[in-house]
Amino acid sequence: VVAVFTVGGLSGVMHASAPVDLQQHDSYFVVAHFHYVLVGGAIMGLFSGLYFWFPKVTGRLMSEKIGKWHFWTTMIGFNLTFFPMHFSGLFGMPRRTWTYQAELNLETWNQLSTVGAFIFGFSSLLLIWNVFRSARKGEKAEANPWNAGTLEWSIPSPPHHYNFPELPEVRSREPLWDDAERAEVEAVTLAHPEQEPVMPSPSFWPIVLAFGITLTWALLMTGIWWMPLVGMAVVAFALYSWAFQPAFR
Amino acid sequence: MSQAAAIAHDDHHYTSTGLSSWKVGFWTFIGSECLFFASLISTYMVYKGRSVVGPYPEEILDIPLTSVSTFVLLMSSLAMVLALDAVQKGDRRFSLVWLGAVILLGSTFLGFQVYEFNHFVHEGLTIGTNVFGSSFFVLTGFHGAHVTGGVIWMITLWLMAARGKLAPADSMKVEIAGLYWHFVDIVWIVIFTLVYLIQ
Fold it and tell me: Is A248 on the interface with B (CB under 8 A)?
């Protein structure tokens, strides 16, 4: 994440020089620059977050083998797509243009980018496959498979309803890495099921209500005066059903 | 019976703030309603005096008539206070009387508004005539829609009281309906002052 983002950051600094920017403007150089920024700064962070919290959310670990394939195809595909764009851009390849003249000698750079883009695209298929495969038959995850230090890893994977009945007292950034503090946190988070606070019972009327509101405004666009009344009837029905449903179990 | 089940039968259950979560939620809703009406009122004020064709506000707004309907709406707030008091005391007969009074007075206000809108349209002022018409009908129309929603709410409470389902333990339901009713009333005071009295 940091290395890729740094490449994007440094090529961004180059734009600050007006003569350089004149050459780079609206070229593939810019495309290369901001993809290094957003893939390094956001996409890779999102991927790592997905791998990190997937076991907490689903209770199952993602496949490490597919994960490694995903990582390497992403790194190779991404760099092969966007690194040559620095050069093709500087040599005159404009962005948002699907073709170019043969005498510009851009074939090699563009072909590298094309091959890279296919690898990069394929890598995301690996990720999607990994998510669906692991959600259904991945290895069962423990409460804290990474030996991580923060609070969410003190409760079971996936978390039970109302994850923290009482707020644990926290005195450091990684309370689970300090044995004494860990014992206190676990005592609070795993004990006293009989003292669970009263929670409102689940209801599907709110989503019906939201649908009715959407329907009302959508039907207003028909221009037929009585059409929104259909949506308003749904709203009224959902509101009353919700209001007269027992609030607590 | 476990402790949790005992708490579940009481609306005033424990919250970390010590406030009823219904009330906190409803005050939040009133906050958003304030912004809603603030934007409609500011729209009216911004367009005030900018209509290039008539009818103009000073030609058409009837202060004596609207003063009567304003008084009616104010009295409905008084009835609301008395209705809450009756429900809290478990006085079913006066719960029905005062909730009924809120419904009647609220409906009377709406009747005045229907008459007024009808009259304006016959005088040639519609929502599309000029910026006065647009901002006036949107502002007062949305207020009227709020009163209508409130009247339907009060009818619901009246029916609950009539069936004996509004015990003192349920008074929070009436209290929250009252918050809404008083809010809509206060908004009307602002509209009446800015639109009708200060022309």
Answer: yes
B24 touches A at CB < 8 Å: no
pLDDT at position A7: 85
CA atoms within 13 A on the CB side of A153: 18
CB atoms within 10 A of CB B187: 22
Residue among B3, B8, B156 minimizing CB distance to A249: B8
pLDDT of residue A22: 86
Q: Is 0.95 exceeded by the ipTM?
A: no
pLDDT digits (tens, 9 = 90+) for A182-191: 888 877 776 6
Q: What is the 3-state secondary structure (H, E, C) of B128-151?
A: CCCHHHHHHHHHHHHHHHHHHHHH
Integer angstrom CA distances of residue A105 from A22, A100, A102, A109, B30: 21, 9, 6, 9, 66
- Taking the Cβ of residue B17 and every Cβ of chain A, the question of whether any pair is shorter than 8 Å is answered with no
How far apart are the CA of A247 and the nearest CA of chain B, in angstroms? 9
Q: What is the pLDDT of residues A101-124, one digit of tens each?
A: 888 889 999 999 999 999 999 999
- Measure the CA–CA gap between B150 and B102, rounded to whole angstroms: 10
Intra-chain end-to-end CA distance of chain B, in Å: 64
For the record, the structure tokens of A203 come out as: 């209801």
Query: Which H or E run contains A185?
Result: helix A179-190
Interfacial B residues in 127-166 facing A (CB < 8 Å): 156
Q: Is B93 on the interface with A (CB under 8 A)?
A: no
**Cβ contact B14–A194 (<8 Å):** no
- The verdict on a CB contact (< 8 Å) between A194 and B8 is no
CA nearest neighbour of A124 among A80, A70, A75: A70
Is pLDDT above 80 for A164?
Answer: no
Specify whether the CB–CB gap between A209 and A241 falls below 8 A: no
Report yes or no: B7 and B14 within 8 Å, Cβ to Cβ.
yes
Q: How confident is the model at residue A196 (pLDDT cuts 50, 70, 90)?
A: low
Question: Per the CB < 8 Å rule, is A196 touching B4?
Answer: yes
Average pLDDT, 10 consecutive residues per value, chain B (199 residues): 39 68 92 96 93 88 95 97 96 95 97 96 93 95 97 96 92 95 97 92
Say which of A198, A240, A247 has its CB closest to residue B4: A198
Question: Please, which residues 14-33 of chain A have a Cβ atom closer than 8 Å to chain B?
Answer: none
Query: How many Å lie between the alpha carbon of A222 and the closest alpha carbon of chain B?
Result: 19
